[in-house]
C-alpha cells in the first residue's frame, strides 16, 4: 500500500541496521539494547518512545519470554504499534464534530481540510469549511478552490479579519444549515510564534464556547521535517491542549518515526496520514500497518 511504499527507503535503512545488530550474534547484552534504542531514535521515533519500547522488550526478555535477539526483533512490530496513543473519540468517525486544524505554514493543513471535506461529502455528511487563516490571502483562495472541488460551502472574510469571528460565523452558519462536520483552517504564521499562539488560543476558546458539537483541535505536521515536528507539537500542545495529530508527506523522504514520537510523548492519537497531494491521498491510521511500514 501507499504507506508501505512511501516508507520503503526508510524501512530498508532500518533493516540494514538491524542486520548489523544481528551479525554480532543473538545475545541480549547491554550493547544490543543500547544499539536497538539508538536505531529507533535514528528512525525519528524520539527518545521517549524509543526508551519505552526498549524497556518493554527488555522486561519481556528478563521474564524469559524473549530468548534472543531474533525473538526481540520479531516482537518489535507489535511493541511499536502498542506504543502509539489511542482514543475512542474520532472527529472523522461520523458523529457531529467541529475540527480546528493548526500547524505551521506548509505542513499541509489546507490540503488536508480539502481532502477531508471531499471524504465527508462523499460519505453523505453535511460539511462546511471555515477559513480562519486571514493573514495570508492565498490561504483563503486555496481553501475556496477545495470547497469547489468538494462542493461544500465555505465561510470566509476578507484578509485581515478577526479569525475568531470567522470561526464564530462558521459555526453559526453550520448550525443554521444543519451541517454536522465543521472544518476550520487556521493561520500557520504570524509576525512571531507568540503572536500565532495567542491568536490560536483565542480561536480555540471561542470555538469551544460556541460550538454545540464536540470540538477537536488537530495538529497537522509534515513528516519530512523530522524531529522539528516534535518540537512544534510540544509548542502547540502546550498552548492549545491538542486532541490529536495528522501526519502528512509520508510519501516522500520522511522516516515516519515522527508519528510515533509525537503520539507517544504527547499522548495524542494519530487520526489520519497524508501520502500525497491528491484527493484520495489521506488514509486512516492503523498502528499495526504503520509499524509494519516502519520496520518491516
Ligand atoms: P498549509 O500551509 O499547512 O495549509 O499547507 P498546504 O496544505 O498548503 O500544503 C503545503 C504543500 O504540501 C502543498 O504543496 C501540498 O500539496 C503539499 N502536501 C500536503 N499534504 C501532502 C502529502 O501528504 N504528501 C505530499 N507529497 N505533499 C503534500
Task: Walk me through the structure.
There is one protein chain. Helix content is 53%, strand content 14%. The protein is built from 12 helices and 8 strands. With 296 residues, it is α/β, with parallel strands linked by helices. The structure holds guanosine-5'-diphosphate.
Ligand types: guanosine-5'-diphosphate
* Average predicted confidence as pLDDT: 95
- Strand composition percent: 5-15%
Q: Choose one word for the global shape.
A: elongated
Number of strands: 8
Q: How would you write the strand order of the largest sheet?
A: 3-2-4-1-5-6-7-8
Question: Major sheet: size, sense and barrel closure?
Answer: 8 strands, mixed
Helical residue percent band:
40-55%
What's the structural blueprint in terms of helices and strands?
Layout: H1 2-6, H2 8-23, H3 30-42, H4 47-62, H5 69-81, E1 97-102, H6 109-122, E2 127-132, H7 137-150, E3 154-155, H8 163-177, E4 181-186, H9 193-210, E5 215-222, H10 227-240, E6 244-248, H11 257-266, E7 270-274, E8 282-284, H12 287-295
This protein binds guanosine-5'-diphosphate.
The site of guanosine-5'-diphosphate has 19 residues, from helix 6.
What is this structure, in a nutshell?
With 296 residues, the protein is of the alpha/beta class.
Key descriptive features of the protein:
14% strand, 12 helices, eight-stranded mixed sheet, 296 residues, binds guanosine-5'-diphosphate
